[in-house]
Amino acid sequence: MTEQDHHAQPANLAGLYDVRERLSRAAEDCGRDPASVTLVCVSKTFPTEAIEPALAAGERVFGENRVQEAMRKWPDLRALYHDLELHLIGPLQTNKVREAVQFFDVIETLDRPKLAEALAAEMTRTGKRPKLYVEVNTGAEPQKAGVLPADADAFIRDCRERLGLTIDGLMCIPPEEGQRSPHFALLSQIASRNHVPLLSMGMSADFELAVQLGATHVRVGSAIFGHRPPIVSE
Ligand SMILES: *Cc1c(COP(=O)(O)O)cnc(C)c1O
């Protein structure tokens, strides 16, 4: 990285301003209040220097996909910004549940009974209650996390009735190939028939479409922060 890049990067808010404008326009175009859609800035792999300008510009909701990485990056920033809302958007292993419940405000990736049980136990133990979204594998892709669409109603009922969990939202990551709208529409149908209020769907490439189909939260990374550095395993 050259000296110039180093100084240019933190001040670069063009991506964020562009995303904000496109988000408002997408909401207005379909008759929704722009304030009804929350931008989750996906800061995974980006260092705090890249995140600080977005905070200074007023963003407060951020998404990270790894518990350990988030716990390295965010405590100092949290000391400065007390009204942050941190979302876990990556897979959660049961052996990280304690840290995740302690650290995150929203866990978007509840995707199996074992995890639901571990979360319920930890939330009872600590009294800390992060919001929970159920991840649905709308494309039924074998390599992807998430409950299958056909199992979603039963899973949500089990979380509520057996474990006493509040399910605040649903989340999906559609397949890379093909149309996104059937996936967003499916997630929205599952949410509405189960009376789940929040819908986390839409990323850099398709957040406007997701807003048209009812997203309350869009998870946008590269359109804000630029190209992601390669993921280094821990
Ligand atoms: C990385 C990631 C995003 C953001 O993706 P972009 O295409 O960079 O906007 C959104 N959701 C999840 C679950 C992710 O892992």
Report on the structure:
- The protein is of the alpha/beta class and 234 residues long.
- It has 10 helices and 8 strands.
- It has helices at residues 3-11, 14-29, 48-56, 67-80, 97-103, 113-126, 149-161, 181-193, 207-212, 222-225; strands at residues 38-42, 61-64, 85-88, 106-110, 131-135, 169-171, 198-200, 217-220.
- An 8-stranded parallel beta sheet has the order 7-6-5-4-3-2-1-8.
- Strand 3, helix 5 and strand 4 (106-110) form a beta-alpha-beta unit.
- Helix 5 (97-103) packs across helix 6.
- The protein is globular, with a radius of gyration of 18 Å.
- The protein starts with a helix and ends in a 9-residue tail after the last helix.
- The structure holds pyridoxal-5'-phosphate.
- Pyridoxal-5'-phosphate (PLP) binds at residues 42, 44, 65, 89-90, 173, 203-205, 219-223.
- Pyridoxal-5'-phosphate binds at residues 42, 44, 65, 89-90, 173, 203-205, 219-223.
Radius of gyration: 18 Å
Structural class: alpha/beta
Query: What average pLDDT do the residues reach?
Result: 94
| Silhouette | globular
SSE blueprint:
Elements: H1 3-11, H2 14-29, E1 38-42, H3 48-56, E2 61-64, H4 67-80, E3 85-88, H5 97-103, E4 106-110, H6 113-126, E5 131-135, H7 149-161, E6 169-171, H8 181-193, E7 198-200, H9 207-212, E8 217-220, H10 222-225
Parallel strand pairs: 1-2, 1-8, 2-3, 3-4, 4-5, 5-6, 6-7
Helix pairs in contact: 5-6
Bound molecules: pyridoxal-5'-phosphate (PLP).
What is this structure, in a nutshell?
This protein has 234 residues and is an alpha/beta fold. It has helices at 3-11, 14-29, 48-56, 67-80, 97-103, 113-126, 149-161, 181-193, 207-212, 222-225, and strands at 38-42, 61-64, 85-88, 106-110, 131-135, 169-171, 198-200, 217-220.
